[in-house]
């Protein structure tokens, strides 16, 4: 089926409509703690590669949205391929990532894990 692209406006619409999905931040812990998209969970691509069982806590039938630091960031597309190989049915890549989200003035939070 392939990895699908999603943009910030569509992602915000999903949030506003309370659509069931999981958003995963693929950046590092320091970046995540500084600022991330509201509702995101941190699972770095390195952690996932080192321990694919981390994905076991996620429902493979629920859409996954992956993001990192924008177009030049390799982490989320690498993670998207990995999640797809682990059997996730709907994998979305928020290609422009956090920079677009901030530019659109959508909600972010600090802290978390």
Ordered list of secondary-structure elements with their pairings:
Blueprint: E1 4-6, H1 8-16, E2 22-25, H2 29-34, E3 36-37, E4 41-42, H3 45-50, E5 64-67, H4 75-85, E6 91-94, H5 97-103, E7 108-109
The H-and-E topology, N to C, reads as EHEHEEHEHEHE
Helix percentage: 25-40%
The third-level CATH topology is: Oxidized Rhodanese, domain 1
Number of domains: 1
Describe the fold and architecture:
This protein has 113 residues and is α/β, with parallel strands linked by helices. The protein has one domain: Oxidized Rhodanese, domain 1 (3-Layer(aba) Sandwich), CATH 3.40.250. The chain has five helices and seven strands; from the N terminus they run E-H-E-H-E-E-H-E-H-E-H-E.
Quick synopsis:
The protein has helices at 8-16, 29-34, 45-50, 75-85, 97-103; strands spanning 4-6, 22-25, 36-37, 41-42, 64-67, 91-94, 108-109. The chain is α/β, with parallel strands linked by helices. Strand 5 (64-67), helix 4 and strand 6 form a beta-alpha-beta unit.
Question: Keywords, please?
Answer:
about 110 residues, alpha/beta, Oxidized Rhodanese, domain 1, 5-stranded parallel beta sheet, two-stranded antiparallel sheet, 5 helices, 7 strands, about 35% helix, about 20% strand, globular
